[in-house]
Prior knowledge:
Elements: H1 2-12, E1 19-23, H2 30-46, E2 50-54, H3 61-68, E3 76-81, H4 82-91, E4 103-112, E5 114-119, H5 120-126, H6 131-140, E6 146-149, H7 155-167, E7 172-175, H8 179-188, E8 193-197, H9 198-206, E9 210-215, H10 230-234, E10 245-252, H11 257-272, H12 274-282, E11 286-287, H13 292-313
Parallel strand pairs: 1-2, 1-3, 6-7, 6-8
Antiparallel strand pairs: 3-10, 4-10, 4-11, 5-8, 5-9
Helix pairs in contact: 2-11, 4-13, 7-13
Amino acid sequence: MASYAAGARAQSAWPSKPVKIVVPFAAGGTTDILARAMAPELSKAFGQQFIVDNRAGAGGNVGAEIVARAPADGYTLLMGTVGTHGINRALYPKLPYDPIKDFAPVTLVAGVPNVMEMNADKARQLGINNVHDFIKYAKSHPGKLNMASSGNGTSIHLAGEMFKHMTGIFMTHVPYRGSGPALMDLVAGNMDVMFDNLPSSIQQIKGGKLKPLAVTSAKRSSALPDVPTVEEAGGPALKGFEASSWFGLLAPAGTPADIVSRLQQESAKALASPAVREKLEAQGAIPGGNTPVEFARMIADEHAKWARVVKASGAKVD
């Protein structure tokens, strides 16, 4: 009885030191933006600092493996993505972690559409005003366009691969260690096109540096209501095109259930607060907050979906 009471006191004392949120991509991308939006809210809720730790590499696999191997004590969390927990198992022959067995899902933080976008100056120079123009140019200039992504296996990569597969065009894929550095090169004119997560691109779009051609979701985004979906803009060849992204908090498998529950409850409160909700929605993100059971079910469904997408698109790790 004494040892049980001591264990209960130890659990209830969590957190007694700072908590690390591992972001498996470089700073500046949507994964990083969402983690930095959540960290101060969780810091206030728990009275301990939640620190963002960027660990980029291998399409998110480096950071995901770090968390999978971390002690299951609630002090190391992952801002997981559709890539790390939906796509990569189907894309990588040898994944250094099991996205189901090695993690305890906490909650979905947000879902976001991707946006097919070009460097605005490059689009003007090439006479590309819409998706039809883009396809026409790509078909008459095979391999001339460079497609940046946040890394192999990310939704940004897969959205581009789906587009290539469905339209029969060829673009050279250039993977980066996150959306942030890829976006910098796109804005600088070193890259031609990207299917970026909307939150990390929206300010550059509004500033006129990037030209949005379409969003990859099934419906238009309220943040860019005048921009059509890929399906709308592309016609019959792109019927059924959808490649949206999601981001969520996960802990190492075996993390005490009461810690996971407390993290979910406080995350859901933060995501429901007007300040956080309005901030995310203004960037094109749809706030989450579901339960660990619901999030686990969603991850399982995403595995099945993206395995079909990877097979159909012919996507490969470069």
